[in-house]
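>> Question from a student workshop board

For tomorrow's exercise we were told to take the sequence and the ligand below, predict the bound structure, and bring the output to class. My setup keeps failing. Could a helper post the expected result so I can at least see what it should look like? The ligand is s-citryldethia Coenzyme A.
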Amino acid sequence: MSETARMILDGQEYEFPVISGSENEKAIDISKLRGSTGYITMDPGFKNTGSTQSGITYLDGENGVLRYRGYAIEELAEKASFIEVAYLLIYGDLPNKEQLQYFNDSVTRHTIVHENMKRFFDAFPLGAHPMGMLSSMVASLSTFYPESQNPNRDITDIDLTIHRLIAKLPTLAAQAYKHNVGLPTMYPKNDLSYVGNFMHMMWGVPAEDYEVNPIVESALNKLFILHADHEQNCSTSTVRVVGSSQANLYSSVSAGVSALWGPLHGGANQAVIEMLEAIRAEGSPLQSWIDRAKDKTDSFRLMGFGHRVYKNFDPRARIIKKAADEVLGQLGVNDPVLDIAKQLEEVALNDEYFVKRGLYPNVDFYSGIIYRALGIPTDMFTVMFALGRLPGWIGQWKEMTENREPIGRPRQVYVGATERAFTSLDAR
Ligand code: SDX
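>> Workshop helper replied:
Here is what the output should look like for this input. Compare the format with yours to find the bug.
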């Protein structure tokens, strides 16, 4: 028997259907609310509002569960390659040998970017934030590949566009890094893995053959997988809303890069390291920082703590914390900031304010410590997040497109001036 939700408005009773998901999540379908009652709902930040029914990622915030297409994040992080997970998120299943070979070969073939893009990079000021360069360059891809602008969504055009974007983002990210360090960009090497090729383009120099360090390659592979999708987060919702106007994939993902940049979202991994560095430099007791984070009159927040969905623990943070110990140990890096992070977590998780509000370390709290140990500059941390999140953005855009979802256009309640007559300048 299908469930319904009853609502009484102005003395009249209305019924709305209840939707149940495959993990028994419940939602009230209010798609006919305004038409039948004249009312809309109000939910700033969409904390209680579902925008779609998606088959890509499942989160259980209370129990710290994260699954991509049904596969547990813990298993994928340990056993899969990032390119396999990208295929899973975009096409719905783990690839067999032939599918993986085809996908990997196709992506490898498209890693190079148009030579004209070098002139774009030359025009950016030295020290330009890599996220600003990345979002601009991703949007400009649509001008080099006009078939991507085809709104009738020819399936072959979509697949070619997807493979091009997966292939070119690491190339553009590495070029943004090389722009700021004043070193020559490196062309892709097609005999390397997806992650190994990114490392070659980031740290390779023309004068010598770059040797891919397997410890670093494995760490980046795991970090990219952990960041690959996270259902309807801010940047993914942005990609879906922009794509819902039938804007092309490059423009939609460029908007996602911009949304991710914010310090409350993907920009938090940069903000966490800056916070830990400030704590280290100031040397004041950790409790004083905790007290500031609790003080509503102080704008300081404990960056890397808290999450809209996870209210017990972020499973990704647990995996990354363990990986931070392993990677720094394997690389022989001793970073005092890691100890500060662990002590800060300890103090916070023994403080009633954090426990009561379900504020635990999120994916961004420890990830920057690994990036630092790998020699990645702080302003590139969110670019690393974007590289990981790309297949999730693409998979969600593809799902929205294939389901022909309506253009995203929320309503509002107007609270401004009621009607009034125009007055001449002299009379004002
Ligand atoms: C990501 O959505 C996703 O899935 C995102 C992400 C992904 O993979 O895409 O997981 C990636 O963005 C992780 C989050 C990275 N951001 C940060 O680490 C920034 C610091 N965290 C916060 O700003 C905050 O926790 C958010 C933005 C993550 C979540 O904010 P919400 O859900 O809107 O919650 P809120 O701001 O309403 O906070 C609820 C309470 C408030 O206090 P009260 O009004 O109840 O007294 O918790 C407090 C907040 O003041 N609070 C914090 C805090 N986070 C929330 N207090 C101190 N420090 C913090 N970090």
